[in-house]
Amino acid sequence: MIQATTILACSGGLAIAHQRFLTPTNRPQHDVMDNSRYQISEPATELVRRTAIIAQSLPAEWLKEFDNSILFLATHYSKTLNASIIEATKRSVRLELMHWAHQTIKNPTKFPEPLITADAEEIAKEVTSLNIPEIFIEISRLHQNTAIKLCINTIFQEKCSQEIANEAITFLLKSINYYFDNSVNKLTNIIHKEKLSATHSKKDAKYNLIKNLLDNRFVDANIASRELNYNINSTHQCGIAWAPKDKVQLTELEKMTIKIITKISTAQSIFIPMEHDTIVFWLNLKNPITAQQLSKVPHHYPARLVLGPLGQGPDGFRRSYQDALTTQRILTQFNAKTKFATYYDTQLIEAFAHNMDFTKEFINTTLGKLLAAPPELQKSLYIFLREGCNLTKSASILGIHRNTLLTRIDRATSLLPTDLNEHRIQISVALHALVAPEIFITA
């Protein structure tokens, strides 16, 4: 039998194993030791082989120790670890133990590569779906500790010198640690892939749910609100951001759009990538984001961005999106230079766009010679009328002096075929149709 000093040495090795269980959950790959042959003496090699033969036979007391370790965690996670996971874990442990033992018997001086069983993969995926992947890592570490303890206890029963026992124990510690470290690394990769897959699945489900809402298919608003974490029954404003692929990738555009919009408004929101390099978002708002708020978006933002009007409930969710699409189409159709616009900026343009012949005739007869005047005259008069003839505010928007604006207004009104005071509405509408597609809120 092994003397007391040997038992102390073995206890030190077991303490190391306990420390390994308590601290790391996924050791980095570079910490996993080399599996090249380990130099040990023939007597120690034979002792390792005999220990592996005992392990391969799956002694009842060994299985009881492993099962107890599983039940210990099952009690701790009683709300999440169901009976099927527990039974699958027991099966997996038995197969892995037999695999380690079999490989060690064949090559007693080489660290065995781990076996990732079908059960182990399914358990890893299941606990990931339950959002508790750390359980599987804990199970692996607990089994690692149990295997070390059982192997050491087996060597305690052997009649050998203290030196041989220590040599065999040192090898077994390294072999078991190598096996479980590699196993944990491989399972961590499986869990990581499963998380990525789950993320994509959630995004697909989210996209399909929104698509059904937009297509006016039957969707329970309360269920949709819960799934999207967004109140469909509330008041919405939809926005659309888009940019060519050569300017920015869609994922980066999504991050930038979320960052910018959440700075403008802290309201509950939902963002989703759509086709054609587009990000669509909705905000739960009582008051809409204004053109002035949009004008504060940083100049380095690479996309164009439009906003629909406020809408109430599922119908408003759809309508705000459709009107945002209309605004996007108007900007594109008229080759507008502006990057940002709201539906209210383009609403009149949309009405005119249905009858272009009438629109051209209306603009010609209403504006007369002003139609051929320098653009700054048209723009200045348009802003002046849009701002309720507020000279100070208009000059500030245009970035010019009040006197300069007065001069431009005088020149512009002198070119009109009718009196401005008598036909202010018609002139405002004509200038809006002429000028707005080019300037919108950048005026």
From TrEMBL:
Taxonomic lineage: Bacteria, Pseudomonadati, Pseudomonadota, Betaproteobacteria, Burkholderiales
Protein name: Purine catabolism regulatory protein
PANTHER family in the cross-refs: CARBOHYDRATE DIACID REGULATOR (PTHR33744), DNA-BINDING TRANSCRIPTIONAL ACTIVATOR ADER (PTHR33744:SF1)
Domain CdaR GGDEF-like positions: 225-330
Family: Belongs to the CdaR family.
Record-annotated PucR C-terminal helix-turn-helix domain positions: 379-433
Pfam family, one: GGDEF_2
InterPro entries reported for this sequence: CdaR-like_regulators (IPR051448), CdaR_GGDEF (IPR041522), PucR_C-HTH_dom (IPR025736), PucR_C-HTH_sf (IPR042070)
